[in-house]
Amino acid sequence: MSEPALSDSEYLSRQSVFLGQLPEGSLVLMPTNPVAYRSNDTTFPFRANSYILYLCGWSDPEAVLMAHRDGAEWITTLFVQPRDTKAEIWEGRRVGIEGTVSGWPVDQAHSLEDIAESVTSRLNACTSVYCISGLNPELDELISRVDGAELADPTPILDDMRVLKSKGEIRLMQESADIASASHIAAMQATFSGIGEWQIQSTIEAHFIACKSRWSYPSIVGGGDNATILHYNSNDNKISDGELVLVDAGCEISGYASDVTRTWPVNGKFSDQQREIYELVLKAELAGIKACQAGSLWSSMHHATSRVLAQGLIDLGVLDCSLEDALGDDFNGPFRNYFMHGSGHMLGLDVHDVGGGRQGDDKPERRFEPGMVLTVEPGLYFGSWRTDVEIPERYAGIGVRIEDNVLITTDGPVVLTSSCPKTIDEIEALVGNDG
Ligand SMILES: [Mn+2]
Fold it and tell me: Is the whole model's pTM more than 0.85, yes or no?
């Protein structure tokens, strides 16, 4: 059985900030994620919906958080599975109704079996329903039968709130970052020429589990050319002497994610070509971190990494043009042939967290504020298999990404993953050295 990860007062204050922004006559219905079936009666590991986690810390399956107005007061209710010894023998112990009232930051708890009755009368009395649809078919059906009430999306308000992390959240994210960092160190130590990508994955994920954690996204372990495939995660190839391996793997603690990438040579020694690309990406990453200053625009970080990478590609003879031409309009010039993704994203209850800042959002651009946590993760990729651009022979088969998790503070950026080594000397000293 679970328990809330943060203090009651933190959840209650989130609820009051959220509910305080809703118009009179609103009803809130927030379901958790459905249990997903893998095959027959086997399920995928359950992961609660981030919004219900955020508002009340409920991490078990099958629940709906409701909030309704009673005069000037908001009343919160969790609908949960009732205690049921026969079901619990098979599925595990349940918190139950009394346990929910005493242990969770809500005013009331009811059985999910009574949800239709409780919700229908409230739906008929309200003017707006703030609900996340598509997660709970029973709830969607109840809401679809109501006419008169307007459907509203609660996520813009909540997303905005989730952007700035509290002290309690930062403590959990630091723990998550520490576990991920240690797992990368263990994987470097366990690496040898000819190792299977899956073996590195097993070292990483064994450490997550040993720390009572689990991955926050499927681990990417790409050797050689596989490092140039951005979301590669079949992890089923051996890595030969002379090749690099790119490991992008992070975990979660009470739902809070870390997201770390390191790249190292499986034989413990960077070749000259690998060293050239690695040093360039590291220089870009350090420039990106330095740009994470409170008050600066989100794009300043991407521009900082991009300038370093574009200039470096010119210096290495990969691009034959001016810096201005390499960067192109809106930082989408030819350097993007080798750096295809964004320089970072928000991090929190979701690995690609909410609240803007990701490339492609059409909201006004954010500025960095103390309490934001984001990733900085430039990379360069020279897939020898590519046919869309010219790949210099010298760098064919090299893919490098370096990714850290960065907290914005008034005193500048704090790297939560600073315990994970990333200089060439540190990495060469660690790889294959499990003594
Ligand atoms: Mn990332």
Answer: yes
